[in-house]
Amino acid sequence: MIDTTIKKVLLLGSGALKIGEAGEFDYSGSQALKAMREEGISTVLINPNIATVQTSENVADKIYFLPVTPYFVEKVIQKEKPDGILLAFGGQTALNCGVQLYKQGILEKYQIKVLGTPVQAIMDTEDRDLFIKKLDEIDVKTIKSHAVESVEAAKQAAKDLGYPVIIRAAYALGGLGSGFCDDEEQLEVLAEKSFSYSPQVLVEKSLKGWKEIEYEVVRDKYDNCIAVCNMENFDPLGIHTGESIVVAPCQTLTSHDINLLKELAIRIVRHVGIVGECNVQFAYDPYSDDYRVIEVNARLSRSSALASKATGYPLAFVAAKIGLGYGLFELQNSVTKTTPAFFEPVLDYVVCKIPRWDLTKFHGVSREIGSSMKSVGEVMAIGRTFEETIQKGLRMIGQGAHGFVANKEIVVPDIDKALREPTDNRIFVISKAFQKGYTIDHIHDLTKIDKWFLHKLYNIVMTSKELANINSTDDLSKELLLHAKQQGFSDFQIGRLIYKDKLDMDEAVDLVRKYRKSLNIKPVVKQIDTLAAEYPAVTNYLYLTYNGTVNDIECQDDKQSIIVLGSGAYRIGSSVEFDWCSVNALQTIRNSGYRGVMINYNPETVSTDYDMCDRLYFDELTFERVMDIYEFENPHGIVVSVGGQIPNNLALRLHENGLNILGTSATCIDKAEDRHKFSSIVDKLGIDQPKWKELTSLDDVHQFVESVGFPVLVRPSYVLSGAAMNVCSNSNELVEFLKLAADVSKKHPVVVSEFIQDAKEIEFDAVASNGEVVAYAISEHIEFAGVHSGDATIQFPPQKLYVETARRIKKIAKKIAAELQISGPFNIQFLAKENDIKVIECNLRASRSFPFVSKVLKINFIELATKIMIGEPFEVPSKSAFDLDYVGVKASQFSFSRLQKADPVLGVDMASTGEVGCIGDDTNEAVLKSMISVGYTVPKKNILISSGAAKNKAELINACKLLAQNGYNLYATGGSHQFLVDNNIPSTRVYWPTEPGQYPQALEMVHNKEVDMVINIPKNLTQIELENGYKIRRAAVDFNIPLITNTRLASAFIISFCNMSVDDIQIKSWDEY
Amino acid sequence: MQKSIQERTKASLLLSNGLKFEGFSFGYDHFAEGEVVFDTAMVGYPESLTDPSFAGQILCITYPLIGNYGVPEDQIIEGISQFYESDKIHVKGLIITEYSYDYSHWSALKSLDQWLKEHKIVGIYGVDTREITKVLRDQGSMLGKIITENHTEASDDDNCGEKNLVKSVSCSEPIIYNKGGEKRVLLLDCGVKHTILRALANKNIEVVRVPYDYKFNNSDLGECDGLLISNGPGNCSDCETTIDEIKKFMESEKPILGIGMGNLLLAKAAGAEVIKLKCGHRGPNQPVRMVGTERCFITSQCHGYSVDAKTLPSDWKESFINLNDNSNEGIQHLTKPFTGVQFHPEGVSGPIDTKFIFDNFIEKL
């Protein structure tokens, strides 16, 4: 039966969250670790992502915050001597690392068994040529592609196949360096870029417009196979599945279609020799039963995480057990606990995944979506009609939509074009097109979206028209109201449609809500049970729907449950860190004897694993839905401070409706959130803050700026496109930026604040009880203020902070905590210049850095905060616990390589998609570990420098000297070159693209990969300066050359690698610090 | 397009335990009565509705969205239906949560609504099918009625139906398919699914389809290489003649394959007993294990009764069991080529993981 020689297992994580590889692998890895623990197997985890749940105590036995690269993995293997290794749970990062370990003979050398799918099978699916040959052997049709190794060969292949073609880089994360080419010109550009990612590039015939169907298949060592879930992309082939709305189960396929593809999927999985879990993607002809296999992922994937949540079948957990040698029939269905894991779930609901994009956060990025992934997160909605499900989902993505209709009017200059060439706004363009009278056939012709989906969307439009025909709830029939609710209309949408703009929206919503409740129209709670009610379920995995009449569960009505609001879709600025906070809050609640109830809808999370709580409501985090659930549950109270900004924003309204908010009162939360209220509190307490003003006319803006001087930070309340805030260095920029704001008026004021340059930014993360600070962590940004705190590199404990500064910060924080009577987690951001300290922001909730400081300190801030919020006894950590003899550094992960044309420069708006946190004996070691963990490499020889303004040049001088002393060749652009030479540092001058005809050209050096690192510091934040270096920065990203755009970070990195080598890095697990 | 709120016709489902579920009528606006059963298949309504095993029953589909891909054309090639399981709809009524008035599929000829109307089959939508399923799961299958605001009572012509369910779905006289095929199989028709006919015909086998009570052992139909006992509706209480004939055929020691009800008949002929399951197995995801091995299969099933394995004679063994509830899913004679499976190896609608059951049977012919 199972392999009893395996006593210790190494699991490779996926590192920092990035586009294409996000929270889903925290979920997969955590499941696998749980499966191992259950068997009494000791676990070792390598993952530098400190904010994850898997890198927590009691999840893995040994945790290494180290880069997931063959070098470090081998070191850990030498030290830990594991018996087996799990490669399938850390995304493409872990899989690629595993393949390299295998090829380098490391696994064999240390006699480590690969659990689950053998590496050969992985290679057979990853290498396009091998893959096609393999599938040819069993008569399965693939998209014939020509693997080429030069741009010329790519052109020839495309000519043979006929345009349009798609090209992709082999061995690349979710479509990196891939795209469609309609002609040779486009191909040339794209092919060149693809070759920078991979020596092999594939040219294929494009099947644009075909359906895209996915299967999740599991196979055990006895050759038993099941297809756990099938899913259909709403958007046809041509749009990456990560960019597509995905529906489960398939909606437009017949039994014949479904079983034909299923049989193929199983045939493939058997032939390839998968042992565990596998994802198979098909292209399916909408006019026949012709198909092509697109790809096979021999590992857990984003789709498998989605499928697990969509069906209730824990794929990662089962795959891990299969890796140990279990047969599927020997494992239990973890929902029913009475039937085996050998079964195929059937759904009695429909699930809809919608991607979340944040493209407006990036300068210059194209908003078109296509074969390469750009979304940063996703949501999953559950309902019992498609209309209900998609409308729920559109609210969940959290970008201001209230559903498919009744949203703020969007401006679409050319609807036909927007339908033909989809952007992140596609679904709302369809809504707009319907409003403008487009027919279903017309929209289908332009989008190729199956008419079934369009019909369903049109149903929503029809109902919205009926609602718009009436003017008051008095005219709203019970039938129409129920019908609208069954199609997923929120009270807000109904209120807006009925009352148009004649009433204040809050008032309109209240009217609809009251009327609805007077008619007893309420949603029912249904269970997800994997077997469509055929067998009773023992888990409480729940959703709400209006398409039903009876609740599956009852309210226990004993006031012994506590609701925790989760964080919603991952987005820039809010991701796995809040999942860690939510999970820890739930654990504390359950350990205290209460039942933990979770509300969240993000399929990538651990908090939405039904084992993590007593009841999981996989549903919306809107006022309406939270009220529905609260009224149904009748809990002891609700926690709003561990899920980031979404729950925080709901606090006041929930409080006003009588909900028991645990911890800091909602009115105090509001005092911190409301700029005016907080400002006057700060003034009252005698605490300094940067000067700011909310202004309602352009004249006022200019007048204020005159008094504080440039630069200023400008935040309009409504922006048409582009970044929501910006730093303006002169009046030209100010005027230009304010043009983007649709309007500066009483209704849409603009906030202008003084921007302090060269100031240190300091984070104060803490927990307080009744206004008294119980635990705190002060951490320091390496970059100066001006880089968003989410993008900054942060060290904890601070290494270069005056003792006096720290003392003052503590005092200020204590005053604020007392004034706001804080009970629970909070975070304050400070600016410090010399010992001059200003408060810039205060959030009475857990912050992004909570898991980082908790893990470095080894004091769980969330556990402590939760105990305080729910009134359980707690211990105040002793003072000595704050005295550390090691350093933690948190570094940011950027995904610019996926965001074509985006300028990889950092500013006041956050752009990073993830982070790592590494611990070292000193700053240098921690910096080096964390920088390698986010993909930097120590340069070998040549470094390209353009060092910006004079001040920046001076800041970099020591680092440059160090480089020269260590034998690096410096190549610098005009001004920087002169500066280096003047300071007796050898340098070779290179030329800007604006200096044609002179050589060497900086850009060419990047294209030819003649440099190993690029340091490019924008002179100031003016557009002209930004554009000057843009080509170099973008080329560095496109050609995969490490790029640093900040002098302070560049210096820190250079000092670290010049003072120690990678070989000097200690291989120490978390508990060894 | 969806019906507007005003156009909808109210309908109700009344269960014999007194529960009432209110929804709206689609398909034929009429009254229907029958045993209410649930099926968990997410796709395959054209196949299920024409499956003779569902004869006389009101079918509640647990998947909420039905009608999405319309209904295909009923192509009949040499007497065998290509997309359906028989020449008509066998269920008496259909219960779903949401009906898709708009369908989309290249093979669709018409809507489900239109098809039900043509076959005079009553449908109800807008009811909580999950709750209905839970009631049936906990209390067992039960009788029920669908009424609409226009039809609350049965009319006279509703009661002339055949009470013997097997007789009502069996052919009335022998039919021969694929004449001149390599081998010759006698098909005992208790309500055979056309997919079974297709599976045999595709293997170049001549099929001699006879009525369920046909005395084939002493007939002029000529020699056959094997016997296939088909699926069918209900239990096998009205099939004494059938069982006697099977017993006689066993003496020849030629291969026998029983499918669905065919498995029950084969067991009875061998001397075993049949028991009623609480609410039956109807769905595409029933897991079975081949007894004595590590091999498991996902199967399509549609039955309310099963063989009581304890009563099998000593020269028979249990060959498959259901992994969910351990009930019998197949029997095998220890020495002779007699096999029965309770599940549907032909799938449709459902998985085709166990096609090898046919291959094994055909190999032995």
Description:
The complex is a heterodimer of chains A (1073) and B (365). In chain A, the strands form 7 sheets. Chain A has a 7-stranded antiparallel beta sheet with strand order 14-13-10-11-12-15-16. Chain A has a 7-stranded antiparallel beta sheet with strand order 31-30-27-28-29-32-33, with helices on both faces. Chain A is of the alpha/beta class and 1073 residues long. Chain A is built from 35 helices and 38 strands. Chain A folds into 7 domains: 8-115, 3-Layer(aba) Sandwich (Rossmann fold); 125-143 and 207-347, D-amino Acid Aminotransferase, Chain A, domain 1; 352-518, Carbamoyl Phosphate Synthetase, Chain A, domain 4 (Orthogonal Bundle), CATH 1.10.1030; 551-652, Rossmann fold, CATH 3.40.50; 692-745; 757-884, ATP-grasp fold, B domain (D-amino Acid Aminotransferase, Chain A, domain 1); 937-1064, Methylglyoxal synthase-like domain (Rossmann fold), CATH 3.40.50.1380. The radius of gyration of chain A is 28 Å and the shape is globular. Chain B has 365 residues and is α/β, with parallel strands linked by helices. Chain B has 2 domains: 5-154, Glucose Oxidase, domain 1 (3-Layer(bba) Sandwich); 165-364, Rossmann fold. In chain B, helix 6 crosses helix 7 (261-270). Chain B is globular and about 65 Å long. Chain B starts with 9 loop residues before the first strand and ends with a helix. At the A-B interface, strand 11, helix 9, helix 16 and helix 17 of A face helix 3, strand 19 and strand 20 of B.
